[in-house]
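Section 3.1: Structural characterization of target chains.
Under the original work plan, the team committed to producing a structural model for every single-chain target entering the pipeline before any wet-lab resources were allocated. The record below documents one such target. The sequence was received from the expression subgroup and is listed exactly as submitted; it comprises 409 residues.
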Amino acid sequence: MTSATLNAAVRIHPVPLKQDAAIIGLVGLAHGTSHFSHLLLAPLFPVFMRDFGLSFSDVGLLMSIFFVISGSGQAMAGFVVDRLGARPVLFSAVGLFLLAALAASQATGYGGLVLVAILAGLGNAPFHPADFTILNQRVSAARLGHAFSAHGLTGNLGWALAPVFLVGITALADWRVAYYAAALLYAGVLGLLYWQRDKLRTEVAVRHADAPKGAELAYLKLPVVWWCFAFFLLSTMTLAVVQSFAPSILKAVHGVSMEAATFTISAYMLCGAVGMLVGGFVAAYGQSLRWSSDRVVAVSMSIGALLLLLCATGWLGAVGTMVALAATGFAVGVGGPSRDMMIKKATPKGATGRVYGTVYSGLDVGFAISPLVFGGFMDRGWYALTLAGAALVLAISVYAAVGVGRRTN
């Protein structure tokens, strides 16, 4: 059956909602597992510092190792996804998380924690190319906006679950027990994905014998790919500032307690999840009205940048600043599904894994360099300038989004 015949059949026999929902749910579960693994070590840093005599620099390096491996591996993983299909790569990734949790449960020093960071980074690397290859191939076009919305939402929920899960079990039992429980969680997810494996099958990119040498790398010559990469790098730098420094800024500038400041970050993430849910309807509705996805992204990110800039002024006071930060999460979240639609439009046929792998590696790069850049501001006590800088970077990401739109519309 040719692709044209298949497409015609899909139009005559629309994909049932139940089938799309099952695929979206499975991919969302896997993505939540990925974000859970971002924080496989960080919530228990104080415990490791106490038990193993580590410094802040020591534990901070663990996160750098994770994101460097994840970022560099993500682009390469895209080629593997296109060659072998997304399903076996996704299974391998969750399996690496399982091994990372078991390694954490047996750690006796810093070397063991480094091994955990390496395994988790390798596991995290393939997720975006694998996830988006499955969604783009298996979910009907009319529901892709909702699919991308659910994908982003489950990622935020994974971030929210990890500290509660790991710290909670550690408080009740022991941190090694917490990692055994995490290993069981990964095993359960892997078992469910394997059981429903027929819903995760994807077509591989066909390699033609007469294809010119280096054809698989031809997408790297497309300027739009690098505009997408720049957008992810810049917008993620802002998220990293909020996650890393907002509690300290609120405490230093407004005298907010650490508990309240930390709650603000949770509120930011939860509002971001709600924003992504709303953004799925915006993306789907925008398609029917022919709104360009890059403009939806530009508007949402512009509102987020303005809110951050308002926070930097200090005019809102403690409570107003915390509310505005949470609202920033919602504004940025609304643009999430349209952002993924924007990248889909920029992706050449047969190169989904490679493009998403390259573009999303910008996320890891942003997470890696942002604390280095803005950490210097914080060391000098430039708290307002740190938030203003985050707002500026987010505003520049709007320019990148518009640049993508100019090359795809």
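The radius of gyration is 21 Å.
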